[in-house]
Specification:
By secondary structure, the protein is mainly beta. It has 4 domains: 106 residues, Sandwich (Immunoglobulin-like), CATH 2.60.40.10; 86 residues, Immunoglobulins (Immunoglobulin-like), CATH 2.60.40; 100 residues, Immunoglobulins (Immunoglobulin-like, Sandwich), CATH 2.60.40.10; 88 residues, Macroglobulin (MG2) domain (Immunoglobulin-like, Sandwich), CATH 2.60.40.1930. It has 1 helix and 31 strands. Strands 10, 11, 13, 14 and 15 form a 5-stranded antiparallel beta sheet that branches. Strands 18, 19, 20, 23 and 24 form a 5-stranded antiparallel beta sheet that branches. The radius of gyration is 42 Å and the shape is rod-shaped. The termini are far apart.
């Protein structure tokens, strides 16, 4: 049997106590690394159980820099002097007033930020309308507080600046004026701790075009082989409008054709020729400016019968009880009055004889006088069109 002296027993019990304390002392656990910048960060931890440590020691690697946190209830510590874009790991040790200490917490890895954030990439647009779009991009791979989005028009005028923490931004209140030419563009920069990255490339966006009105035939001579077709444009100007002409569901040879600017109002016009007499055609239009608008509603119109077949008994009033002509008969002037449209509504008209020869054509207002004093006595036909009605009325001149 081995003998122990009093001194050796005392040493044994002292060593045993320290080992016991170091093994079973409550370990601190790192919960997160926050407020990371290019040179600083904050280490956060938790500690449960008792006894309460006398202080904590934070160890940063590489470099083995240590921070003594002289509070047994502390749960965080700011660390500094770090290098930009560098990988680090930290551990926390709880020290007790008895001189014992806990096992170091598991290593918690993090990476510091770049001094200047990286530029966002992969810009694209979505949800495009005639007045808005959504700008999108891929997040910067560096630390970012927010993104700065700039929007410019065709002439490089900045028309909007947005700050967002997201990777998309709604851009609204746009117009399709001649100034913008329908073309907008946006770019994005990342901002971190007041430092802004270089701006990304400009991403072009064509906002959607509005649809033209339904084509209509009136203001011009409609014959057995030709007519003049108009479309009203949206509130904003477009550079090109095409007219599509169909016969029996098939596109007529040579169409679509570009329509021409019309000197009066926001309209396009096209003289349609080489038509077949007494035949029904379908027309619709589409606006172009880079992208294209949806098709307008369809117009169906029928050419007049061939020359010599356009007889008096083939003409009857188009059923339009809302419109009346007065005075009728008349010797000098006529007026159109509508029961569904107000006084002063614009009306397009032409006056022709039974053979389809046009004597007068023009634009007037409802209830305003249309002079026919220069016509010879006889029966004429007044063809008219307003925004909401159209038809043919017999007029007797005496």
């Amino acid at each position: 049997m081995k003998n122990y002296t009093a001194k050796s027993l005392a040493t044994f019990f002292t060593i045993s106590l320290i080992v016991y304390q170091n093994t079973w002392a409550q370990q601190a656990m790192i919960t997160s690394i926050s407020n990371i910048t290019a040179t600083t960060a904050t280490v956060n931890w938790t500690h449960y159980g008792s006894p309460t440590p006398g202080y904590f020691q934070v160890i940063v690697s590489p470099g083995s820099t240590t921070y003594n946190v002289w509070s047994g209830t502390a749960t965080s510590q700011n660390i500094s002097g770090l290098g930009p874009n560098t990988n680090y790991s930290v551990q926390v040790v709880a020290w007790y007033n008895s001189g014992s200490y806990s096992i170091a917490s598991p290593q918690y890895a993090f990476k510091t930020c770049l001094s200047t954030p990286l530029v966002p990439t992969n810009l694209y647009s979505s949800n495009i309308t005639s007045t808005s779009f959504v700008a999108n991009w891929t997040a910067s791979t560096s630390c970012v507080d927010y993104y700065k989005v700039q929007v410019a028009d065709y002439n490089n005028n900045i028309v909007g600046t947005y700050n967002t923490t997201s990777t998309s931004q709604l851009v609204s209140s746009l117009t399709c004026s001649n100034t913008s030419q329908y073309l907008y563009k946006f770019r994005v920069a990342a901002v971190f701790k007041g430092v802004q990255s270089s701006a990304s490339y400009w991403q072009s966006v064509y906002i959607a075009l509005q649809t033209p009105s339904t084509p209509w035939v009136l203001y011009g001579t409609q014959t057995s082989t030709s007519c003049t077709i108009f479309v009203n444009l949206p509130s904003c100007e477009v550079s090109q409008t095409k007219l599509y002409l169909y016969l029996n569901g098939s596109l007529v040879d040579g169409y679509p054709k570009y329509m021409e600017n019309y000197s009066y109002g926001s309209r396009k016009v096209l003289a349609v020729t080489s038509l077949t007499p007494n035949t029904t055609y379908t027309a619709k239009a589409k606006n172009f400016h880079g992208p294209e608008s949806p098709f307008s509603d369809e117009l169906q119109f029928t050419t007049l019968p061939a020359s010599g077949a356009f007889l008096l008994d083939q003409i009857s009033d188009v059923p339009d009880v809302s419109m009346s002509v007065f005075p009728n008969p008349t010797s000098s002037e006529i007026r159109l009055k509508s029961s569904i449209e107000t006084h002063g509504t614009k009306v397009f008209y032409l006056i022709m004889n039974q053979a389809g020869k046009v004597f007068i054509e023009g634009t007037s207002l409802l209830e305003a006088p249309i002079c026919i004093e220069g016509l010879e006595k006889g029966i004429y036909f007044l063809k008219y069109k307003t925004e909401n009605s159209e038809g043919i009325k017999r007029v007797v001149k005496f």
